[in-house]
Design brief:
2 copies of one chain form a homodimer. The first copy, chain A, is mostly helical and 141 residues long. Chain A has helices at 6-27, 34-45, 51-57, 62-74, 96-116, 122-140; strands at 78-82, 90-94. At the A-B interface, helix 1, helix 5 and helix 6 of A face helix 1, helix 5 and helix 6 of B. Chain A binds a DNA duplex (30 and 30 nucleotides) through residues 15, 19, 22, 33, 35-36, 50-52, 60-64, 66-71, 86-90. Chains A, B: Residues 3-137 form the HTH marR-type domain.
Chain lengths: 141, 141
DNA sequence: GCAACCTCTATGACATATCATATGTCTTTA
DNA sequence: TAAAGACATATGATATGTCATAGAGGTTGC
């Protein structure tokens, strides 16, 4: 039975959460994917990050991040300007439109999380986090 | 901090596990993706399933399953034949090559799981499963 | 200084995720 | 039984995941 496999449960939980999150963002009339939102949010926090560093923070590949950034630029949520001391890079900036999108998404995400974690205590959450971290460490070595 | 968000932990755990699994399959010289393997395995268990039913079992979209089946057919791991009473469908069969692939992957998967779950007790696993199931239910309603 | 090496970004190739829809085929209902 | 609805599969469009690599630009060591 697939349902007895823990990785199946993990996959099911995260997929269902992602679907809920994206549905609610769409329903709020916001034109962004959750993955793009995550990247945008990380850039907002620190605009000096390289794509590789962004990729590490959001657990994605540099190639994926490059394409998401290209889309965010195309959609006007990000702007880029050259960096003086390093011609390989560009400095990314969240545009006012990007800021507005972040602000609009924030409450939706908070509601999603609250819904997803209903009936789960802080202690259980800590346990969950600890076990998942253990799996992560077991897999990375 | 992203690391404080539980969905980040879930995502990190499952991604790292998937990467470990795929790396070990590749390293064993087996030409199949984990997703294709999962589909092939489900078909082996019940060859009368429709694509939609397979998709439900493996938590994927019918469109994704259709494309994976197309690849499995192309690679010779599956064969299809018409179904007498319903012209919409085809009956899928795991070929000998498919059987061999499943047999070769099995021990790799078992080793992966054992590695990923090192140091986690049966009781903790049950807790993990219960919490993830709760998140899933919270998100599906 | 410059050769070897490393970093940053972009992109090709292929697989998957998701939604929408097309097409053909049952099935049900008026 | 014909029309309407449901179902099975395929596919277009777009986004992401992953690996590999190209191409331009830094950095280091000699």
């Amino acid at each position: 039975m697939l349902s007895r496999i823990i990785f199946y449960s993990i996959d099911k939980a995260i997929r269902t959460y992602r679907k809920l999150a994206q549905t609610n963002i769409d329903r709020a009339g916001i034109a962004i994917t959750i993955d793009q939102w995550l990247v945008l949010r990380v850039i907002e926090e620190d605009q000096s990050l390289t794509q590789t560093e962004i990729a590490e923070r959001v657990l994605k590949d540099q190639a994926s991040v490059a394409r998401m950034i290209a889309l965010l630029l195309k959609h006007g949520l990000l702007a880029s300007e050259p960096v003086a001391h390093d011609a390989r890079r560009t400095r990314l900036q969240v545009t006012p439109q990007g800021q507005a999108t972040l602000a609009a998404v924030e409450p939706v995400i908070l509601r999603n999380r609250a819904q997803a974690l209903q009936g789960i205590s802080e202690e259980e959450l800590a346990t969950l986090r600890r076990l998942l971290e253990r799996i992560y460490l077991n897999c990375s070595t």
